[in-house]
Structure to design on (198 residues):
């Protein structure tokens, strides 16, 4: 029964995406990893300006499935099963993707590595970080009033709780500090994507 529901939710996600970029022979799956408040969503938007892609933001997708999320382990597990199925479906069609999610544990990232391998996608991993004092400022500002398009409910306490769970990324990846100029890292990722198309 759950498999049927996951499939139905995947279709719901696909319909909500609107217009998608044209398919490619070898699409990129860009996995953007980082703690809350580090600037993942901003980085993803800037990256998508240079690399036409569907941005899959886990916080936004969670609220499509669970309008008042409880953030339980079961809820998160279900959400990511749906997201993984969505990624698989889009890559099968040749649609390039930028995934915006914390993805702090390697065992969870393995699912993404496997999907990329199965679909012959160009896997690019990006770790986004920022100094804790800046993250705290951002999360306090977020708590005072969310801007348009802001879906995350994470606050400073959640950041502090999640920080020790962030595991080393086992694969080659880019690192970007959003307290600095992010353009040089975006340039490198654009080159990497172009190289993958040759």
């Amino acid at each position: 029964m759950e498999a049927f529901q996951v499939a139905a939710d995947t279709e719901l996600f696909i319909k909500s995406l609107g217009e998608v970029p044209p398919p490619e022979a070898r699409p990129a799956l860009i996995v953007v990893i980082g703690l809350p408040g580090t600037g993942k969503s901003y980085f993803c938007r800037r990256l998508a300006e240079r690399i036409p892609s569907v941005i899959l933001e886990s916080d936004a997708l969670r609220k499509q499935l669970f309008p008042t999320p409880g953030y339980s382990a079961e809820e998160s597990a279900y959400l990511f099963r749906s997201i993984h199925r969505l990624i698989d479906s889009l890559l099968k069609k040749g649609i390039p993707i930028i995934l915006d999610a914390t993805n702090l544990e390697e065992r969870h990232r393995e699912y993404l590595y496997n999907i990329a391998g199965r679909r012959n996608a160009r896997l690019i991993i990006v770790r986004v970080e920022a100094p804790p004092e800046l993250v705290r400022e951002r999360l306090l500002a977020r708590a005072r009033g969310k801007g348009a398009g802001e879906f995350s409910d994470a606050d400073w306490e959640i950041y502090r709780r999640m920080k020790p769970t962030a595991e080393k990324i086992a694969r080659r990846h880019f690192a970007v500090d959003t307290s600095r100029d992010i353009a040089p890292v975006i340039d490198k990722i654009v080159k990497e994507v172009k190289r993958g198309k040759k």
